[in-house]
Amino acid sequence: MTTKPATKSTAKSRKSTPDAVDMLIEDHEKVKKLFKEFEKLAKKDDTEGKVEVAQKICEELTIHAQIEEEIFYPAAREAINDDDMLNEAEVEHATAKDLIEQISGMSGDDEMYDAKVKVLSEYINHHVEEEEGEMFKKVRKSKLDLDELAVQMMERKEELMGALA
After folding, report:
1. Core-most of 14, 29, 30, 62, by most CB within 10 Å?
2. Mind listing the domains of the chain with CATH numbers?
3. pTM for the model
4. Rounded CA gap, 158 and 45, in Å?
């Protein structure tokens, strides 16, 4: 039995599937939009709306961080051999998780609520800049199979989202 070579259409359809780095960048973009939505609702004093968005932010970040820590970071650690960068990313995750826990346990009309969400936003923006500006570039240059990693990450993400539902 002979194997057919990949056609342009099959190669293109494979290409349209995001790889592991693309998936993480999509998550970053989604959370950035949610933070902007939160800011608009906070300005309107829409407590119920901002709490709903903040909860979504916390869920998205929690799942994202867990996928990175369980799947992406260990693979990246092996592929790029930059423990300092990955250690720093994990410490940043721990701090973000602490803020997420605080926000999740607060009332939306608490005087510190908006401030904590704003600090989380700034913290995440800093973390994202480092990942996208440094780590992801190094990972893309490595021999890591980002397509296979994306499959593992998507399966885990679906599990975690199902557990939240």
Report:
1. 62
2. 19-164 (1.20.120.520)
3. 0.88
4. 33
